[in-house]
Amino acid sequence: MQDNVKYTEKIVIPCYDTDCHWRLKPVSFMNYAQEVANRHATLIGFGYDDLIKSQTAWVLSRMHIIFKRIPLWRDKVTLSTWHKGLERLFYLRDFRMTAEDGQDLIVGTTSWVVLNLQNRRMVRDPHLLDEDTKNMENAIETPCDKVQMPKDASPTFVRDHQVSYSDVDMNGHTNNAMYVQWAMDAIDYALTSEKVLAELRISFNHETRPGQTVSLWHLVRENGNIHMIEGRTSEASAFCVEFTFADSSDDRTDLSI
Prior knowledge:
With 257 residues, the chain is mostly beta strands. It has four helices and eleven strands, in the order E-H-H-E-E-E-E-E-E-H-H-E-E-E-E. It has helices spanning 26-43, 48-51, 176-185, 189-194, and strands at residues 7-12, 56-67, 76-87, 90-98, 104-116, 122-123, 156-162, 196-204, 213-221, 226-232, 237-246. Strands 1, 2, 3, 4, 5, 6, 7, 8, 9, 10 and 11 form an eleven-stranded antiparallel beta sheet that branches. Helix 1 packs antiparallel against helix 3. Mean pLDDT is 91; it is low at 250-257.
């Protein structure tokens, strides 16, 4: 559906976007969200083709997603997105995925910056977005705070990951969704396959490119329900993500399939 203030698509969840319990993977939701965000931005005049004329581009900085009920393979869902304009440093964009009955499945809020591709500096232009296309509806009430390891934390080294072909997007650096995939893979499969992801918050701190090595560090908090993964290069923190898990018996998902 095309709308100046909200863009909506119908999706049938494909098998290749689900896990061993037929549940939509978090990386798959992130891929969907990136695509509908791009389509809506293009529709209202500030998409990739519009910004690249001035050698600028959208860069995702923070993301907060709440999984209220995870859709399953073959489910018919509706994914909507809208932007909320500029707030301080960030341009805000929200997402909402609903079931056929209109009930919320997944909600999310994201914070973006515009980056000058030549000098790698942020561009803050309050006139970049048309006020007529802004929608102040909140999928999540507040923007995502910065996610970082506690100062007194002692995370455990998991492994090194070398940025390779499958990680890299059209801009030549690691796609944002891949950081979530690396982070999920850094947690024991017995946990990620059986527990249900209830919430994730992530900060994207520093881009990574092909050939770079990213070391993954894992911290478990609050009785094992919260897991933090940080990816570090030799220069800086590339990303930090916080996952909150619920038991598979939780009513966020239906495993009677």
